[in-house]
Amino acid sequence: MFQEIIHTVKSPYRDDMHIVGFRFGKGEKAACIVGPTRGNEIQQLYICSQLIKELTRLEKIGAIVNNNEILVIPTLNQSSINIEKRFWAMDKSDINRLFPGDDSGETTERIAGGVFKAVEGYNFGIQFASFHTPGEFIPHVRMMETGHESTSLANLFGLPYVLTKKPHPFDTGTLNYCWQVNGTNAFSVYTPATSSIDETSARQAVSSVLRFLTRMGIIKYNCHSGYIASIVEEETLMPIKTDVSGIYRPLRKPGEEVKFGDVLAEVVDPIEGEVISQIIAPSDGIIFFAHSKPLVIQNCIVYKLIRRLHE
User: Fold this and answer.
1) 135 and 72 belong to one structural domain
2) What's the whole-number mean pLDDT along residues 29-52?
3) Strand pairing class (140-144; 28-34)
4) Domain boundary among 205, 233, 261
5) From CA 270, how far away is CA 248, in angstroms rounded?
6) Peptide bond into 100 cis (omega under 30)
7) Residues 136, 249: one domain?
8) Residue 22 sits in which domain range?
9) DSSP readout, 180-191?
């Protein structure tokens, strides 16, 4: 393994910000793994750190197959991590909406452009990402429907679900989308947590990437075979909304099976403490996403349900 600077952001007042990458093995550009692009993605940063630790160990024992190079970039945005801001502090821009970048653009456009030059051309691209709505997911692999996506390859991660999504205009600036349209098989791996550490799902994410690299013949790693994933299209998920604002009291978690009529959550009056609304399951199914903040506003999506699926 050797470490190198992928891109540098010059600063007139403080130290320059260096985006670093860790290369394992030599030869064909086999796989590139990218960590957080946002400052609150601490779980994603932690997963990357554990992956670098494990790949370092595997390289020492000769477990990276000849003529395969793996690049890991643990974070693109340590500046926002340092000040605990989700987006770039100067203009609140989102690096993961600015790919493939612009060398003559604003700072975050130049970061996206510099990084994309380093990560393009790999056979497989894996990103640890988070969702724009705060909440928890079932661990899954997510892909844009660009015509280049492969659910068969995504299944090889061994996570319980693979989700495909028809891209909206703002999705065309994501790394996942740009990777795909430029010839890389791209996957985004989601775990339940974002700004906190969930050790169990972090280990699951690391294992899923190592399992995938093994099945692609890039490394030698003996691990559990994982799940045969259920394929879910995002537009088939049933959104469940609140009808009032207040303090949110969730009763069910992602991954749980629910029946029609089950009480999923309660909304409490923030002044008088009385339950003013109950969130009722409108269908049988598996909870795929759950809101996790203590407050909700009216018409906020608090759950997404995979309808009529059972454990």
Assistant:
1) yes
2) 96
3) unpaired
4) 233
5) 9
6) yes
7) no
8) 2-233
9) HHTT-EEEEEE-
Q: CA-CA distances (angstroms) from residue 135 to 32, 182, 187?
A: 27, 31, 20
Domain containing residue 187: CATH number: 3.40.630.10
148-170 pLDDT per residue, tens: 999 999 999 999 999 999 999 98
Whole-prediction pTM: 0.92
* Residue carrying structure tokens 């670093």: 20
Amino acid identity, residue 59? E
Q: How sure is the predictor about 309, in pLDDT bands with cuts at 50, 70 and 90?
A: confident
Q: And the tokens for 142?
A: 């997510």
Number of domains in the chain: 2
Q: Which two tokens stand for residue 56?
A: 């370092």
Asked if residue 211 and residue 243 are part of one domain, the reply reads no
pLDDT tens by residue, 63-99: 999 999 999 999 999 889 988 899 998 889 999 999 9
Token pair, residue 33, equals 């793994």
Residues 6+ apart with CB under 8 A from 206: 47, 50, 51, 54
Residue count of the chain = 311
